[in-house]
Structures are given as C-alpha cells and as structure tokens.
Design goal:
The chain is α/β, with parallel strands linked by helices and 367 residues long. It has 15 helices and 12 strands. The strands form 2 sheets. Strands 1, 2, 3, 4, 5 and 6 form a 6-stranded mixed beta sheet that branches. It binds nicotinamide-adenine-dinucleotide. The site of nicotinamide-adenine-dinucleotide has 25 residues, from helix 5 and helix 6.
Length: 367
C-alpha cells in the first residue's frame, strides 16, 4: 500500500527523496461521475501549480501513485523555472473521450476553489484549454484557459521554445558555441511540442531527422519543411548519426538499450520523465553523453501558464522562458563541479531554492 504522505513508489529524478506531501485531497461528486485526487507536494515558494491529468487509471492506487509523483516533480520544475510557486498536480479518474462532461469539470472546479488558492490547476494529458474555461467558471485558481478567455492558451509554444534554449546551452557546454547551424538533431515525436521544436531547429540552420508513430504528424512536418529526414522509429533514430537526441514523445525514452545504442553526444528533449529508471543518468554520464534534465528544459509550458496568474503577457512569459538557457548552463557547471550527473545537480539546485527562498517567509512582517 502506498503511504499517502511519503511515496513508496520508486521513481527516477526528482522523485526519489522521501519528503512528504503537504496535503492530498480526494474529491467525489457521484452524479457527474467526478472522482479526482489533488496532491500538493509543497508550498515553500508559493501556491502549488500543476495540471489536471484525465486518465482511465486501472485503480485508485495507480491514480494516487501518479498524482503523488507528478506533484513532487512539479515542485522541482517550478523551483528551477524561477517561479514563486510550489508543486501540485491533480488527476481525474476516467476516460476523457467518454466520461468528461460540463457538470464534472465544474464540480472539480468547486473542489479546486475550496482549497482557497493553495492549488492552481492547468491542462495536462486528457485536458484542454476549453476544459479549463469550464473549471474556471467555478474557481479563480485556474490557468491554461483559452486566449479568448484571457488565458495563456497552448503551452506547447513556450515548451518547445524552452527546449530549444536548453539545447543551445547543451551545445554551448559541449562545443563552446550555442550555434545549432550544421548540427544534426533527431526529434522523436513531432506532436504539439516536437513539431514546434523542429520549426526552431530549421530556423537555426540545423539538420533535422524525425520519427513518429503518427503518419499525420510526420506529414505535417514534411509539408512545412520538406528537407526534414524521416526514419522508421525510435530505434532507427537513436542509432542514427546525430549530434543531439530530442525525445518529445512519451516518458521512459532513455532505457538501458537506448543509452547503449545512442550515437548522439547530447540528449535534450521535451518529454517528461525521460529516464526509464534511476541510474540511467549515470549510464549516460559514463558514456560521455550530456543529458539536459527534462523537467528543466521543458519548463517553458509551466512558465507560460503561470504568467496567466498575473494577466497573460506572451512577451513577459517568453523572456522568462529564455532564462532556461542560463539555468541549463548553471546545472552543467554545478554537475561538473560536484562530480555528479546533471540530473542530480538539477535536483540539488531545486532543493536549495525551495529551502533558501522558502525560508524567508519565516520573517515576521507585523500585522
Ligand atoms: N505540451 C506541453 O506544453 C508539454 C509541457 C511539458 C512537457 N510535455 C511533454 O512533452 C511530450 C510531448 O507532449 P505533446 O504535448 O507534444 O504531446 P502530443 O501528444 O501532441 O505529441 C506526442 C507525439 O509523440 C508521438 N509518439 C507517441 N509514441 C511514439 C513513439 N513510440 N515513437 C515516436 N513518436 C511517438 C505521437 O504520435 C505524437 O505525435 C510529453 O511527454 C509531454 O508530457 C509537454
């Protein structure tokens, strides 16, 4: 049985510390079919922010394990993104294609509202900006709404931009210049994030190779950039002669076999939870492959939606996402100094910010 306030789930970075969650709330509204869990890992830096995943979990236990891991990961992501936000996440158990309805989303909104601003929600797998518009009819603590409703819209715009900034930093660290012109980059998954990353890469003069299980997704990229090369699958892509491997599909892309096969010297992509198990970060380092930690380089999306809390301004959000370049360089430098893989250095820097900046709230301000 999972211990609700201290994870039993053995997961990779940054989810292997044993710190406890501040608050976990189970929400149920039988008539609309809502069954949700909201997890707040910490509010050291501010209210918790993280998306709502709508997914047909096979059990309540599986949903709980997921939301606990995801909320902790958000605390680390938000901390290193330089946001004054803690880590939280929510899951709604069900099939988004068949179970989602207005009453359910609005009931969910009322539970989010009941937390009084300790948790801000956003989109995630299975939820879209239009869903957040409905949640926002019952709650003031919602981001990722449609632009028509004052929201930040599709977060993949700055996610891809941030991954591009992280990649420039990785190339700078490896080759002494952030220039991507002439470098060969393999992008796995050209969905919302991946296809926008390809746009940035082509504009920067990189040679791009892609793969995707969806023919449509590949065709969309080829229609925009006919020069982009296509390979059959992830095995072909990771075995290809590329300088940078950018996983932008599902989690777990970096397993033992992939690391052994990889010819790229750099891994930098948008997918969440790229390391299939703890220890892969060391395997990469031992093979001399520089790994740009996923939650650092893909934080452009949360930076985009977080900006909505202050009234969305794309220019301001983009300026903040540009800082992913400096943050990534700092992680590589810290990793080299401390003699640890970049994934470990990233976790340490995030923990340091949560602890040092979080501590100042103890200064009494009077009444
Ligand atoms: N959208 C965001 O703002 C955001 C933010 C942070 C992290 N991420 C992460 O980035 C990744 C991509 O997100 P997205 O929003 O682009 O999703 P998406 O569903 O739009 O795109 C994923 C793409 O990967 C393809 N794919 C699936 N399995 C594949 C496989 N085995 N090999 C090759 N391609 C495969 C899909 O066909 C699809 O085109 C996810 O891991 C997501 O969690 C997204």
């Amino acid at each position: 049985m999972t211990d609700v306030f201290g994870l039993s789930h053995k997961d990779s970075s940054p989810a292997n510390s044993q710190a406890r969650h501040e608050q976990v709330v189970f929400c149920s509204d039988e008539r609309s079919g809502l069954y949700a869990i909201i997890a707040i890992y910490n509010t050291a830096l501010g209210p918790a922010l993280g998306g709502t995943r709508f997914y047909p979990y096979e059990s309540e236990q599986a949903a709980l394990t997921d939301v606990l891991n995801l909320s902790r990961a958000m605390a680390y992501k938000n901390a290193l993104a330089g946001l004054d936000l803690g880590g939280g996440k929510a899951v709604i158990i069900g099939d988004p294609a068949t179970d989602k309805n207005e009453a359910m989303l609005r009931a969910y909104g009322r539970f989010v509202q009941s937390l009084g601003g300790r948790y801000f929600t956003a989109c995630d797998v299975g939820t879209y900006s239009e869903d957040m518009d409905l949640v926002a009819r019952e709650s003031s603590y919602v981001t990722g709404r449609t632009q028509a409703n004052g929201g930040a819209g599709d977060s993949s715009i700055l996610t891809a931009f941030g991954v591009f900034q992280g990649m420039r930093a990785a190339v700078e660290h490896t080759h002494g210049t952030p220039e991507l012109r002439g470098r060969r980059v393999g992008v796995e998954g050209v969905g919302k994030v991946g296809h926008r990353l390809v746009d940035h890469l082509v504009e920067a003069g990189a040679e791009v190779v892609v793969c995707d299980v969806s023919e449509r997704a590949v065709e969309r990229v080829r229609a925009r950039h006919p020069q982009v090369e296509v390979v059959a699958d992830q095995v072909a892509l990771t075995g290809a002669d590329i300088d940078v491997y950018a996983p932008c599909a599902l989690g777990g892309a970096l397993d033992d076999a992939t690391v052994a096969r990889l010819r790229a010297r750099i891994v930098c992509g948008g997918a969440n939870n790229q390391l299939a198990h703890p220890g892969v970060e060391k395997e990469l380092a031992d093979r001399g492959i520089l790994y740009a930690p996923d939650y650092v380089v893909n934080s452009g999306g949360v930076i985009q939606v977080a900006d909505e809390i202050h009234g969305f301004d794309m220019g301001r959000a983009k300026a903040k996402a540009t800082q992913i370049y400096d943050t990534t360089l700092k992680i590589f430098a810290t990793a080299a100094e401390d003699g640890v893989p970049p994934a470990v250095a990233a976790d340490r820097l995030a923990e340091r910010r949560m602890s040092e900046v979080g501590r100042i709230r103890g200064i009494w301000l009077g009444r």
